[in-house]
From TrEMBL, chain A:
Residues 211-228 have a biased composition (Basic and acidic residues). Residues 206-228 are annotated as: Disordered. SUPFAM superfamilies: P-loop containing nucleoside triphosphate hydrolases (SSF52540). It comes from Patulibacter brassicae. It comes from the Bacteria. This is DNA helicase.
TrEMBL record, chain B:
It comes from the Bacteria. This is Uncharacterized protein.
Amino acid sequence: MRFPTYQDLSKEQDDVNNLPLKGNYLVTGPPGTGKTVMALYRGKALAGRRESVQLLMHGRLLSQYTSQVVGHLGIDGVVNTFFSWLGKWCRSNWGVNTPQVEPYRPDWTRIIELAIEKPPARGAQPHLLVDEGQDMAPEFFMFAKSVAKGLTVFADENQRITDDNSTLAEIRTKIRPDAELKLTRNYRNTREIALVARHFVADSPTGVPELPERTGPKPELAAHPRTHESAQRIATYAGNFKRQQIGVIVPNDKKLLSIYRNRLAAALPDSVRLQHYSNKGKTEVEFDTPGVTLLHWASAKGLEFDAVFLPELQAVRQELGSPLLHMQLHVLCSRARERLFLSYTGEGRPAIASLLPLDLIKVVP
Amino acid sequence: MTDPLFPSGHTPGPWLVLTNRSNVVDYIASGLVRPKEGLEKYYADLSDLVPLRVPVVAGPLSVELIERVADRPIHFPVALEIAADAVSSTTDDRVGSLKVATLDAIAKVHLETEDDLDELVARTFDNVDWSRVEYAVSPELFSGGDLTLEAVREALSGTQDGPAPKFELEDRLAGARLMALSTAEAHHDLDAVALVALDAGQARTAAGGPGEWFVIDDSLASYSPSEGASFDERLFRAAAARCISTSRSDVWDGARLVGEIDELLKADHEVDGDDLARWAKAAERIREIVDAVRTFERLTTTEYSSEAAVLLAALRGRPADVLALMLEDIGGDAWTVTAAATLIGLVHGRHAMSVELRPEALDSVLARMERSRLIGSPWTPTVEVAADGAKSSLKVDGAAILEVPLPPKPLHDLLASIDVDISANREAVLEVVRIAGWQEVIRTTVIVPGTFSHTVERKTSRIEFHGDPVIEQGVDRTALEHRLETDADALRPVLERLVAEQHEAR
């Protein structure tokens, strides 16, 4: 990940990027509008002033990927999971472990009491940036406002995990923002990829961002006689475009992953790095460097690649009408920044192909 | 810097370009202060009044003008103090204007408060180097003025400009120049590419290749090759015209580029059937490589330079990626990489390119050149290439803007330059020539310290030496130079053998 050029940012992104470094702000927008990216840029701007700044993410989002992106932006130490940061705060400011009503449920009443009894020294107040603020409890914002020098919350209430978390109205009430801005457009994908991805969530209650203006080649659906040919095509692409970050995301099947790992290892040129990622394993993967990263569908959330290959669609076992499958296809397709390749192997077109918007896809015989 | 249309006149205060923080980012990114029409993303300021001019007003500033350009807290005002000789006067001595200025014309960037300065430079952009201008916090400039917007409008109403300069095209051409110059190292010869890229005449070194017709000028904007242009040149020009018309914000689509070139060449009646057939094969191969149904490993020896350049450009749409080709073993010659980089430079333009690819000295010369072309003023710098030890420097008006290392000396040149009068050097050279079998290069002298006796027995002479002889070996310089001229290739296996022996010994 690089910093944007000035021209890369739209005017709505300019407004978020230019929010004053002092004060409290709320930035909202549906998934895919780049809230996390803008939070990272703001983290860099604040960190550059040699003041304490923390970008808090909900645990599930602080993936290996995000950690590496943070490293490349030169803001190591700025990003923390919410729970990890809260624990450190309680120990360093009050000498206690995080008060909890049950595991992983902070005792906000006690925490707010402590914050009033022992407020941080003026120079020790951090700037707090909160990503996915809708996943935090409303009381968190009362606490955060009392201890932080400045607070910027990035949120989308349509993505709330449970009812225990915060609505935008609750966040507004608690932090009393100096300004509230909205991000509306998809900045990650090309228009062609976004059109395919949004096809799977057309009726989504979480809302979809406006289509991107950036265009690119149409996504492609290819049929391969066997896995060998499918892997060979990926290897040829990776060899020809060896400066790209390429994700090969296979259905959740250990054997399939193993087959692709072996085939790609054999077919890829020496100059192209092959990595295997699992969000559950301890594998160290470098996301922000060129090469091929092989992973399961289940591990794809939160990642991005220049080109994404989704092979072996015929191996998907879920019911075609399953909302989960539709959401997964949306997530998988929207991992691709520039190119998207779907494919299947074997005889005949698999049933899952009927879910694809073939009018938006280049079908390769 | 004086705009010839309007002579500069006396002004009561410092000349200021009043704008907001966002437009300033664009100015620093491009190295050019440009009017509304020149900005890709414009935030309303005084240039609204005259879209082809940048209004300049004498400080201090009035509240009315500041409110016109700024909207706190996000869009705070910024005032660029401009050198008087860059400003054209109007009928009002408190109002001037300029068409385009480089950063050299900015004496200081003034902010109203320390917080504004903090806010401005805290943001990081890939194409902005904040250190290229000086900053000052000058609250006194942001209050106390009495100039009204109406007075500015009236003063500027007399300015007349011709057609709008081609801001976008000149940026693309400057991007191409930057990229071409960035490949100079691959040529080991700055003359070859630098003088062409800077449009400084001479430099047509590669007879029969792109060096003969390679240009970066506004003739690339539309496909209109001269009557006698070769097919190689026509292909490059077709690719260049399509690259200029490509939006850099879109994903690079090599297959689309090939299709568009195809259309241009088919419509060109000067392209004969053989060349079209040849291109059809080349285009098919490029499409297959871009579509990943064919592997690309190296360029072939039968490709035209432009065919190879289009292939490389189709595969590498990002500036840093195409420049990385210089480090890869892909075959082809340096002009091929230069032409590919030039095409990608035409897609991206200069001002949106990362500052990592834009060394300040080179970038500011390109900005000066761009400005001259935008205002229709001739750009006549002194451009020279000078070799200095191990590097070659490109100098513009005496200042070095680009340096590339000279190619390493060939082995035989290195050997020829060794001083064999130095004992250790002599032994090393002797070892090499012995292994090479160059016997005549070894000069042997036998020194006998005592006397000798000579007897003749049965028609045979017998000479006896008295004493312990000393044998000295040296290098016959003339014989060595002859060998190096006629048999230098023999050195490689000799050195390889020495390395192998050294390896075994370890």
